[in-house]
Amino acid sequence: MMNIDNILKLVQSGDLDIAEAKRLLEEGLSGMPEAPGHPAIRKTANESSEDAGDKSPGETSIRRKASFPSLSEEAVDDSLGYAQLDLSRPARTGFPEVIYGESKSAEQIAAIFERLAAQTDRVLATRVDADKAAYVAKRIPGAKHYPEARALTWLRSGEAGPVDGSYIAVVCAGTSDVPVAEEAAVTAECLGSRVERVYDVGVAGIHRLFRRLPVIRGASAVVVVAGMEGALASVLGGLVAVPVIAVPTSVGYGASFQGVAALLSMLNACAPGISVVNIDNGFGAGYNAALIHQNGTKRDEK
Questions:
Q1: Which of 120, 172, 189, 232 could hold 177 in an S-S bridge, CB 3.0 to 4.6 Å?
Q2: What are the φ and ψ backbone dihedral angles of 235, each rounded to 5 degrees?
């Protein structure tokens, strides 16, 4: 009986090359034509029909994943030794791999940056300080540093083009929350989304928020960044009809516990439609918002 295991065994034994295995998998395991010279993977129409009824949902899912070209060994660059670069991530997820720069040396960031830039149309590194960014920029023409966001970007075209007239709103409670909000905004922009920034509209002067509600309500997704008690996310959750991604920040006095108070407040919000990322995780919020925005745009185009 033909299945994924047969194909993998033939590849491992050298009787079937990777390109041929990929072609067969892409054609689908049901109704697959005969592969000359490889009797172990020949199948009749009757056998295909019988096997289709025996497949569990899990088996079907695994087989579909196995047909993705991104799972081949050619999709990984491990030549640096300290990193295995996922070069096919754009084909699999829609966005390239992102570099987390906090604990990496400037040399490591630059080397990874160079490899990714050779394979993709955009590169993003987060948590990159000014000294590391200056080093990378000398090696990567066109790399741009956003000091407030601590983000470093490179775009093959030189500029990120918005998907269309739609946008993401990035909202923050106070000026002290702007660095995390900027990380979210720059992330979303690097991934191709347009961003509208609405800053310093926290609940301590809630009338400031109401002045900007039309902009916020017009967004495809809203990122809400707040420290202290983190109440802004719950307020906005009851005012908009789109997903809200809440980001607690470590801004606040002692009892805020470096953002834990805001995190718990957001997790316990009674307003529906709110998802919460980790403390100070502007990148995660911006990435999720870009996914929501761009998948919504794709549906609208159909």
A1: 172
A2: -60, -50
Please tell me the chain's helix, strand, coil percentages from 3-state DSSP, rounded to the nearest 5: 50, 15, 40
Confidence at residue 41, expressed as pLDDT on a 0 to 100 scale:
39
Location of structure tokens 């009986």:
1
CA distance 288 to 205: 28
Query: Cβ(108)–Cβ(82) under 8 Å?
Result: yes
Q: Which residue has the tokens 């809200």?
A: 244
The rounded distance, in Å, linking the Cα atoms of 195 and 225 is: 14
- Cβ-based neighbours of 255, under 8 Å, separated by 6 or more: 261
Which distant-in-sequence residues (6+ apart) come within 8 Å of 167 by Cβ? 193, 194, 195, 196, 218, 219, 220, 293
CA–CA separation, 281 and 181 (whole Å): 9
> What would the pLDDT profile of 226-235 be if each residue is shown by its tens digit?
999 999 999 9
Paired strand residues for 244: 222, 274
pTM of the complete model: 0.73
Is the per-residue pLDDT at 220 higher than 70? yes
Q: Would you say 171 and 224 are in contact if contact means Cβ atoms under 8 Å apart?
A: yes
Identify which of 200, 128, 208 has the alpha carbon closest to the alpha carbon of residue 171: 200
| Position 8 confidence tier, pLDDT thresholds 50, 70, 90 | low
pLDDT at 267: 96
Q: What is the pLDDT of residue 299?
A: 60
